[in-house]
Amino acid sequence: MADGNEPRVFRIRVRGSDVVASCAETEKALIALEQAVAFPRPLPVNVGCRKGGCGACRVKVLSGDYTTIKMSRAHVTEQEEAEGYALACRIMPLSDMEIEPAFLSPRERMEMRQAQKFAD
Amino acid sequence: MSQEGLLRPGIAQLRVLDMDEAVKHYVEYLGLEFVSKEDDGRVYLRAYDEFHRHSVVLREADQAGLDFFAFKADGQEAVDGFRKRIEDFGYTVDDVPAGEMPGTGARIGFTVASGHRIELYADMDLSEDAPETNSPMIWKTMPRGMRAQRMDHCLLYGPNIEEVEKFFTEVLDFHVPERVDMPDGAFAIWMTVSNKAHDIAFVKHDEPGKLHHLAFFLQDWNDIGHAADIMTHYDISRDLGPTRHGITRGQTIYFFDPSGNRNEVFSGGYTAYKDHPTRVWDHNSVGRGIFYYERQLNDAFLSVVT
């Protein structure tokens, strides 16, 4: 937040949908997306715990700068985080952003983690 | 005493990502009592209407979920008897010595076919703040937050639930008040060792060892509404409800703790006697079985577990 002024507000687009959310730099991307879509229209990303633990809102950041806060390593490994994966409920934008859903079904996640374990 | 052997759910040990946030959630919002924090970092909690020292244990880790779920037996002799039956069934049993948790006797542990660790124990100290027993008041200190009365049950997700059902019914003497059968076999089972509609439930799932929710018992539908008010005021992530389950008939809200573990507040539910027939739901009705008013499952019910 610059000089105690209002926080900067950025636009978050979701590839594959027409949703554009306005998100302050102090706000979580998922919450901004929820506010941008009227109930009961489905969100372009899944919603679960909204607290970084359950992995429902896993996304890949395609462009833009952002900060994240602690999220479960079961859903975003350190390597995946470096590749731009994150949980939308843990993302706060530092620029306009484009994201795409990257939810892993339980089977996909299990198979991916087993493959990663094997590769290690 | 008619109920022998295992009595009830006793301990759930949960993994949380941030202990301070978790304690705030479970103590201030759910209303559990803070019992102790020990040198290894684990935090022990108890609901106000529970007699024994603790029922919920929090352990900080980098992945949320359930370490184990433990049932209390009516004596060490019963635990020893179960050990033999479990080993005869083919599972390996390990020992957790008395004192591994404060105020708690020896426990035995084993992993069931769904990948979950289950423990049995006979002894735990009564709480210093246990409910009164001599011309008692209905509570000792004013209930707080959602006014959770007890840790009630859990729903676990994992594979091989036919074997899980066989083990719990044949070895641990549970019965099955309710089930969902799909054309390709059992999808979900609700089991009890008492006469609550469920003490533990399982849903068929590819990943082993997953937690769907840990549930807390509230007094009634009014307290479910009060819990929903708290969720909005304190920005607690709600999954679904307030609504009713067709299965168990309990009134419910699913919501999340700050680590992504799903919680439930639950009231009502029918009484399940061992001689009652099992209620069976088919694949056309499972939506109404889980969420009676919505009559359909939400995405998160099948995909969001820790």
CATH-assigned fold name of chain A: Ubiquitin-like (UB roll)
Output the structural class of chain B. alpha/beta
Report the strand count of chain B. Answer: 17
Structural class of chain A: alpha+beta
Biggest interface and its residues per chain?
A: A-B, 21 and 26 residues
CATH structural class of the largest domain in chain B:
Alpha Beta
Radius of gyration of chain A: 15 Å
Major β-sheet strand ordering of chain B = 14-15-16-13-9-12-11-10-17
If strands are numbered along the chain, what order do they take across the biggest sheet of chain A?
Answer: 2-1-7-3-5
CA radius of gyration of chain B is 18 Å
How large is the share of residues in beta strands of chain B? Answer: 35-45%
Low-confidence stretches of chain B: none
CATH superfamily of chain A: Beta-grasp domain
Our count of helices of chain A gives: 3
- CATH level 1 name of chain A: Alpha Beta
Helix content, binned percent of chain A: 10-25%
The gist of it:
Chain A has 120 residues and is an alpha+beta fold.
Task: Describe the protein in words.
The complex is a heterodimer of chains A (120) and B (306). Chain A has a single domain, classed as Roll (Ubiquitin-like (UB roll)), CATH 3.10.20.30. Chain A is globular, with a radius of gyration of 15 Å. Chain A has three helices and seven strands, in the order ββαββαβββα. The model of chain A has no long low-confidence stretch (mean pLDDT 90). In chain A, β1 and β2 form a beta hairpin. Chain A is an alpha+beta fold and 120 residues long. Chain B has 306 residues and is an alpha/beta fold. Chain B folds into two domains: 116 residues, 2,3-Dihydroxybiphenyl 1,2-Dioxygenase, domain 1 (Roll), CATH 3.10.180; 154 residues, 2,3-Dihydroxybiphenyl 1,2-Dioxygenase, domain 1. Helix content of chain B is 19%, strand content 36%. In chain B, the strands form two sheets. Chain B has a nine-stranded mixed β-sheet with strand order 14-15-16-13-9-12-11-10-17. Chain B is globular, with a radius of gyration of 18 Å. The N and C termini of chain B lie far apart (38 Å). The model of chain B has no long low-confidence stretch (mean pLDDT 96).
